[in-house]
Amino acid sequence: MLETVIQSLFAQAQAQNGRASTCLSKGLWLVADTRSARRTLVLFRRVGQPSMQEARICAKYAGFKAYAIAPHGNKLVIFEKE
C-alpha cells in the first residue's frame, strides 16, 4: 500500500507543478518533489518529528536504489542519488 501511495504521489507531482503532498496515518506528511533531475521526498509531522526508520522505509518503497537522508529542522529530506 505504501509503495502505491508514494508512486502515485510522484506521478501527481510530475503532472502538477513538480510538488505534491499527502498525509499518511499517525500524522506523517509526505511531500514529493520532481522539479530537479533527482526525485526528493520530504517527511514531516505537524507535531514532533519523523524517525530515521520511517525515512528509510519510505525511501525503500519509493524505489530509491541509493539515497541520502538529511535532517532539515523538524523535517527529514530524502534525496535520490544517481
TrEMBL record:
<protein>
    <submittedName>
        <fullName>Uncharacterized protein</fullName>
    </submittedName>
</protein>
